[in-house]
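As promised in the previous annual report, we have extended the structural survey to additional targets. Below is the entry for DNA-binding protein.
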Amino acid sequence: MPERLALPIDPDALLTPEQVSTLTQFEVQTLANMRWRKTGPTYLKFGNGRSAPVRYRRRDVLAWLDSQVIAA
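The corresponding C-alpha cell record, generated without further manual editing, is:
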C-alpha cells in the first residue's frame, strides 16, 4: 500500500509518481508500466533518458480516472 503523501488541490499542480500512486491506489511500478504501454494518464517528462523526472498534472490524472468509468 502506498504511503500517504500530501496532495495539492491545484488542478495544474505537477504530481510525482508517488503522489499519483496515492491518488489512484496504483503501485508506482504499475504507473511506470502504464507509461511504457501508453495506457495511463498523460504525463510530462523533463529531459531525456530513463532517469528524467516524470510528473503528472493533477487535472490530467483526474480526467483519466473519469474516462475509465464503465457504465453498467
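The mean pLDDT is 92. Residues 14-67 form one domain. These points will be discussed at the next consortium meeting with the crystallography subgroup.
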